[in-house]
């Protein structure tokens, strides 16, 4: 390549560069400037030529620019100017703006001159500020993650709130640290499976498992992650937005639960009510044909059974999957109230250990009524029912025939009953009420060999023995 050709190309680069290019002598005099300086600084090139470079430096004297310029010429080398500093330049109108400056020494007629390439960073800074504003004000937890290493580079305030951790703890950690520690490999594979340049949203794994994060308190929170692999400021990153979907999951569970209840209601209406209805219709026909009014007793019993089934079905359908509030209920008080509401014949109730149970009053009433009705239906008219509070739970037990171990898991299923008069919904309703309170419900054997229905993970306050005896005396007088 000829010298003339090289010179032409250098001249073309100088004149058409997107950066403002200035050739500066050791004394700071601008010897030459390209056309781009007018767009960036507001000066025509010829206006700058012969001026000191300090005319473009804000507060040049205050920042000791002449001294720094002289120091550079002492050991001139190609490098960015003010590495790590926020450099600013001054426009002709006096305004200042952010710039990047690259310096390269050249030899001209034995003298050292410097080519300064100046790039206006105003637009980039504006975009960065916009990016940071959007990120910090985003309602979702936002993470900027190195696409190669998985290291978290930046987080917003919503992220610190979701993880209950300061930004300093999150930044620098691996992205898998956001998720359950026992499944780190699973989440590592999920992160690195993100296609470059694509936006992807995921809330569940292929097998249906929720995508979870693990805040510092150890609880797992289901999230929906919307992520995009892109280049940001010259670095390959994944920008991921985490949205807490706990409420959505609760709504879905409630919806599925309600659908299940409606399906069970349809089953009750189509099957369980048919038998007593047929009994009532048959006996009515016989009474009409024969004049035997004793048949009406069977009709009445069939109606009573239908009424019980309908009431149980309505209780099952109306109860939600959660309770909004609980209150302290004295076990002996609610137990005796419910006992009086149930046809207990010659059965008896005993309060072995009194105390407070924190529960929803209406739903606790349904729970005890169904358990008492179940005890009488399966244990007989003279069954003895015992209730008691212990630390963290309560129980209802009886001295009836009990429930065989192989049937204890199925007793809460809709329709399970060994009684010809039962609706088969009572224990299913009890299980629903326990689940709504987040109680653990188990069926075991009582001390007398009967059934014991135990509820754990309950907020309780057992009374001491002396208080229990006094309370029992007062209640015996009331009855």
From TrEMBL:
Location of region: Disordered: 401-420
Any single GO BP term: regulation of DNA-templated transcription
EC number: 2.7.13.3
Single Gene Ontology MF annotation: phosphorelay sensor kinase activity
Record InterPro entries: HATPase_C_sf, HATPase_dom, His_kinase_dom, HisK_dim/P_dom, HisK_dim/P_sf, PAC, PAS, PAS-assoc_C
Short name of one Pfam family: HisKA
Keywords: Kinase, Transferase, Two-component regulatory system
All copies of domain PAC, residue ranges: 83-133
Domain PAS residue range list: 6-70, 127-197
Highest taxon listed in the record's lineage: Archaea
Histidine kinase domain ranges (all copies): 268-455
Catalytic activity: ATP + protein L-histidine = ADP + protein N-phospho-L-histidine
Name by which UniProt lists this protein: histidine kinase
């Amino acid at each position: 390549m000829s010298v003339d050709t090289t010179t032409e190309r250098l001249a073309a680069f100088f004149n058409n560069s997107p950066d403002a290019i200035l050739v500066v002598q050791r004394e700071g005099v601008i010897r030459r400037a390209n056309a781009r300086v007018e767009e960036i600084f507001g000066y025509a090139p010829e206006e700058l030529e012969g001026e000191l470079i300090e005319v473009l430096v804000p507060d040049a004297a205050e920042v000791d620019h002449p001294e720094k310029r002289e120091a550079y010429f002492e050991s001139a080398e190609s490098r960015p100017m003010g590495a790590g500093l926020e450099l600013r330049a001054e426009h002709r109108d006096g305004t200042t703006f952010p710039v990047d400056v690259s310096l390269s020494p050249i030899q001209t007629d034995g003298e050292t001159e410097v080519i300064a390439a100046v790039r206006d960073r105003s637009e980039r800074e504006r975009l960065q500020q916009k990016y940071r504003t959007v990120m910090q004000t985003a309602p979702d937890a936002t993470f900027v993650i190195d696409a190669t290493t998985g290291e978290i580079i930046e987080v917003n305030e919503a992220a610190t709130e979701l993880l209950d951790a300061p930004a300093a703890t999150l930044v620098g950690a691996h992205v898998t640290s956001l998720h359950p520690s026992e499944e780190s490999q699973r989440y590592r594979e999920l992160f690195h499976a993100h296609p470059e340049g694509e936006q992807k949203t995921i809330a569940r794994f292929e097998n249906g498992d929720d995508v979870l994060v693990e805040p510092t308190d150890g609880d797992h929170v289901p999230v929906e992650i919307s992520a995009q692999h892109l280049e940001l400021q010259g670095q390959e990153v994944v920008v991921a937005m985490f949205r807490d979907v706990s409420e959505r999951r609760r709504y879905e569970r409630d919806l599925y639960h309600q659908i299940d209840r409606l399906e069970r209601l349809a089953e009750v209406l189509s099957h369980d009510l048919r038998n007593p209805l047929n009994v009532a219709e048959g006996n009515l026909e016989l009474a009409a044909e024969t004049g035997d009014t004793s048949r009406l007793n069977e009709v009445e019993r069939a109606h009573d059974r239908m009424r019980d089934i309908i009431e149980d079905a309505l209780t099952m359908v109306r109860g939600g999957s959660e309770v909004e509030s609980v209150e302290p209920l004295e076990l002996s008080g609610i137990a005796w109230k419910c006992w009086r509401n149930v046809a207990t014949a010659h059965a008896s109730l005993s309060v072995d250990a009194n105390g407070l149970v924190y529960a929803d009053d209406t739903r606790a009433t349904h729970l005890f009524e169904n358990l008492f009705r179940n005890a009488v239906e399966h244990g007989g008219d003279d069954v003895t029912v015992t209730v008691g509070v212990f630390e963290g739970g309560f129980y209802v037990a009886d001295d009836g025939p009990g429930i065989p171990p192989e049937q204890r898991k199925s007793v809460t299923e809709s329709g399970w009953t060994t009684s010809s008069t039962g609706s088969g919904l009572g224990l299913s309703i009890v299980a629903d009420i326990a689940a709504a309170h987040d109680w653990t419900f188990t069926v075991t054997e009582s001390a007398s060999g009967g059934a014991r229905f135990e509820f754990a993970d309950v907020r309780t306050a057992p009374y001491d023995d002396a208080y229990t005896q006094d309370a029992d005396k007062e209640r015996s007088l009331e009855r």
